[in-house]
Sequence to fold (850 residues):
Amino acid sequence: MQFWIIQGLNSLSLGGLLFLLSSGFSLIFGLMRLANLTHGAFFMLGTYFGATALRAWDGLNLWITALGAGLVVAAIGGLFERLVLTRLRGNTLGQVLVTLGMSFIIADGCLVLWGGDSIPVPTPQSLQAPTRLFGFVFPTYRLVLVGCAVVAAVALYYLLERTRLGAMIRAGVDDRQMARAVGIPVSNLFTIVFCLGAGIAGAGGVLGGPILSAYPGLDADMLPLALIVVILGGIGSLLGAFIGSFIIGFIYTFGSALFPELSYIILFLPMILVLAFRPQGLFGRVVT
Amino acid sequence: MNPPSSSFALEIVGLKKAFGGLVVTQDVSLAIRPGERRLMIGPNGAGKTTLFNQISGDMRPNSGQIKLFGTDITPLAPYQRAHLGLSRTYQIITLFSGDTLEHNITLGLLGLRPARWQMWLPMSSYRDLSTEARRILDTVGLLHLAQHPISEIAYGEKRRVELAMALAQKPRVLLLDEPLAGLSNTERSAVKALIASIPRKTTLIMIEHDMDTALDLAETVTLLNYGRIIVDGERDAVIADQRTREVYLGA
Amino acid sequence: MKWLGIALIAAAFLLPPFLAGDFYINLASQILIAAIFALSLNLLVGFGGMTSLGHASYLGVAAYISALLTSRYGFGHGAAALISIGGTVAMAALFGVIALRATGLGFLMITLALSQVLWGLAYRMSDITNGDNGVSGLTRPAPFGISLENPVAFYWFVLIVAVIAFATMAIFVSSAFGSSLQGVRDQPRRMAALGFNPWMIRWITFVYAGFWAGISGLLYVYYNKYIHPTSLSTTSSAEALLGVIAGGSGTLGGPVVGAALVLLLKNYVSAYVERWNMLLGLVFLFIVLVMPAGIVPGVTRLIANLGRRSR
Fold:
């Protein structure tokens, strides 16, 4: 019984992490029609920043670290968007290639700065004590991760549905040309959304550190998961990214625990099923 | 008394299409006889091109049936409908701009032939195809431009190539979506003459905005508005109909 | 003028065994293998308009099947090669069905996801694939009893295969099917209205491209006598894509030039610069921003301009 509870919680926390990773990816894809292949690298950057910061300053507040790393990664993303991506508007293949190239640059850069060994990230002291609920013992940090994902989801929902910025983003997602025609600064919007997506990924990376550790290749492990979540949940749908993240979280965790060698196959089975029966994903709209 | 289905070239029964809350095709039913020259008119947004898209298979209706010479084509993909004798032209030019006129027509000829699957002989070895392509270009008066890339010819000439490509398929039913759009007066006469010369064994259905020119070519007219058929019948009767005036001149 | 170019290229490929030392002959073999792989990818990217980031999967799977069948299960090279290509083509057929549920970016993402999954399998199923250690201690085949251990002998073998590959793919591209493929790339709706089946055309091309990628995979494992999961990683697919785009997709010669350049860069640079991946990324950015059509179209235009000016 303990096994199922533990794996269940691990699934939820992985799902939460995946949401932090893929919500940005889905937003960027939905608004900018850009498959941001740098996204895994943004996440990994956050993990490395968090690893260094949390190991160097014991007792450093996790949330501040996540926020800080998120801002730094957002800034890097913003520079990249302004300097490189703006020149390639409309050139989908070109955008794919440069985001891929950027991911190589960041990944190699991390290798240079942090070396080839895996860096474990300490769980913050305040969250180390286990929680007792319903007579079971849960690692607190994993519960916190789920909470973070929910907070992020609510915050993003609020941003998209209740603010003017969100309305502009949604208009841009629905009909870019029309949005431009009514005076929405689509170009600036793109930069903002790219920064937002990158920033959430970076912050998510910090929060994921204690569970995943920072290691070379983390970006290559995370990116396909983001892709599968978005294919499953549907492009540009926040709800799809949320539900998709947890579905994949469960499938990956239980799959790895029960059939470790086949976890990759089990992972892409839902993707195949979705593509076969509902190509626009669970919640996506059919992209014309 | 209803004649049997197969005596109609194209029959549409109760077609409905909606995007979420927006209904673009409302219970459209049409029966077009072989050899007929039908004109679809209606204001912008009336749903004419949407109707064409459903006939050609580019869009799926929510309900209703489309029959081509008695065969139910509603579940069929666009390429399958082409093999049953349906052809269409588009509002925007959809030619292969980097290729020559001859190559464009040759592709049009290849679409229905088994040779299109063959991968071990270069195209240049198909003498009969290039001869036929040149003959077709000659009938539309563009043989002198056969080796020019599409990107280098005039807009009116591109429209004629589009038409030639559709005719190369020797279709039983041809859908023409605004074939006269954007043409100068001389170009318009040329294309009009071309359309008028299409043999009777091809049934023609046209969408056009330029009513003065198009009405000469039409025998029957269907007026659409808000996705619904308002008036349908012989040309002169539809023009004289009160409802037609209301749609174009009224509120 | 055209014949001079062809003569030069023929000379470039026929001379190495007579003039150069083992190092350069081996490099030439590697270039030819990379060229076949790049040409197969270009069928998809340049002629089919389908950008795939998972093409290395087919090279890798062919290589792994051959490696494992010969080293562990005692198969002869002939049988192993047949099963290997058969398996690769079957996999391409299956992956093609999955990936072609989408086009454009969706297609790209699915090919990337599928290839990553395959890489994960190669890495994790160490009982079968030996994981991170790779499969080593392999042999080269001896067709008709002729040993290919010698670099020169191996080079002639690869050259013959490369010429067949190039000729077949050139005919494919200029055939009726090839024309229909390019038509579907440019105007898929128009092609459907003309009676062509766009999905089938794309799928057949996908499988055919997988076939030649598999062939290059066999040559790859014969050359290296070793296979490792990195060979089917995204980096590997990305290098091939870079070669195709840098050289000029949509031409036949472009991918060959591009693949050669990427290989030379990798071989020489990695001796001096440790950060190959970073350099690869920077080269991507450079090519896309500065020379998007690729090198071969750029150079051909340059030569055409020079010719015009001298008149």
In short: The mean pLDDT of chain B is 89.
